[in-house]
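In response to the reviewer comment on reproducibility (Comment 2.3), we provide here a single inverse folding case reported in full, input and output, so that an independent group could reproduce the run without further information from us. The structure tokens appear first.
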């Protein structure tokens, strides 16, 4: 076994979930998904495809019609992106891994803005790259990127800058000026930007259809790879489908890498994705509205608890909050499960910068579950 694999930490969220085994009364908010199933019109498209016998291998880069539909979808939100810049992948996490395989090898330096979903930093480590962590700072009730410090960290030795915005777990969202500054800096150092924008549509500013994207300001040939997923905006976590937007020259490299990783995404899942994109305008804004309702149900309840600190997330599915005097998030998350039947993710699962915090996924079909969860937390804290 390679040492780096031996040393990979296990999932701390799973560790908390395991503490709930045998209990039927736990309200679980630990994973990054809603309890609402995928919309029926999407499920039906997959069923039809299976009934029609679409059960064979397919193109490495995805069905041509899906790449065309993604090109139209992405271009409806951002400046035009051709189908030649799109690779369909078997999940967002696979898209991230393929991107890392393409860009960062043993000994390369990868700078990551953290805390962040742990898969992003584990992947370059698995490939033997050296990960440098750049922590967001929590000041005055909000998460902030210290841009000058990040620019000092990203040098001409840095192969990749990894940024996830809207961010899991903090909800922090990169601003346009910060994006411009990072793009200019990375152009100067020759660094690739890998932008994880899987939550771009889950953005609560009603004036715009999505969070600021690097695609809005970059040229097609910039060293930029943007990673997306069907999981969050279309409630398709279990389907495992994502896509990559890359510079045109990288298409053949991604085709090879997909061949050697998964060969292709299942055709019936891609048919479901085609239905999802066709129904996006009718479905996504309503989902985002409901998620905003969830956020606005939970956040004021957390904020009203003495000793609780929380930034209002601009996007994403999560409330990330700290409780005064509680600095061991894993122990606290386990106690919450055992003593109160409340399932949250420990902040330390997102790196040492998340220690002392808890992540609550507020995507819930029934906001009453959030009210019940908040009551359980209040009772646990004897408030
Ligand atoms: C920041 C971030 N990126 C990527 C993903 C991957 O999504 P999926 O593999 O379900 O497409 C997730 C899932 O939680 C995530 O939080």
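Designed residues, in position order:
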């Amino acid at each position: 076994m390679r040492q780096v694999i031996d040393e990979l930490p296990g999932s701390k969220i799973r560790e908390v979930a395991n503490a709930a085994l045998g209990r039927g009364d736990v309200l679980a908010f630990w994973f990054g998904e809603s309890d609402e199933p995928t919309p029926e019109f999407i499920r039906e498209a997959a069923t039809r495809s299976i009934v029609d016998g679409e059960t064979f291998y397919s193109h490495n880069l995805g069905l041509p019609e899906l790449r065309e539909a993604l090109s139209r979808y992405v271009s409806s939100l951002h400046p035009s992106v051709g189908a030649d810049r799109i690779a369909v992948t078997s999940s967002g996490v696979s898209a991230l891994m393929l991107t890392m395989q393409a860009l960062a090898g043993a000994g390369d330096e990868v700078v990551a803005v953290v805390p962040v979903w742990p898969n992003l930093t584990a992947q370059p480590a698995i490939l033997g790259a050296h990960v440098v962590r750049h922590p967001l700072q929590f000041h005055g009730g909000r998460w902030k990127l210290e841009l000058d410090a990040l620019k000092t960290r990203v040098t001409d030795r840095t192969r990749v800058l990894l940024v996830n915005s809207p961010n899991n777990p903090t909800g922090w969202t990169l601003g346009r000026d910060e994006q411009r500054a990072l793009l200019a800096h990375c152009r100067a150092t020759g660094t690739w930007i890998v932008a994880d924008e899987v939550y771009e549509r889950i953005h609560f500013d009603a004036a715009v259809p999505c969070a600021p994207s690097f695609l809005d300001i970059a040229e097609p040939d910039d060293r930029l790879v943007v990673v997306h997923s069907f999981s969050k905006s279309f409630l398709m976590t279990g389907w495992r489908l994502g896509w990559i937007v890359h510079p045109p020259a990288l298409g053949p490299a991604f085709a090879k890498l997909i061949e050697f990783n998964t060969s292709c995404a299942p055709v019936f899942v891609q048919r479901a994705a085609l239905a999802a994109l066709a129904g996006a305008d009718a479905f996504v804004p309503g989902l985002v509205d409901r998620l905003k309702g969830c956020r606005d149900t939970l956040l004021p309840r957390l904020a009203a608890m003495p000793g609780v600190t929380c930034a209002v997330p601009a996007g994403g599915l999560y409330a990330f909050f700290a409780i005064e005097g509680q600095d061991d998030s894993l122990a606290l998350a386990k106690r919450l499960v055992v003593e109160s039947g409340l399932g949250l993710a420990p902040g330390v699962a997102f790196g040492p910068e998340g220690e002392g915090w808890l992540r609550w996924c507020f995507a819930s079909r029934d906001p009453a579950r959030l009210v019940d969860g908040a009551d359980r937390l209040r009772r646990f804290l004897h408030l």
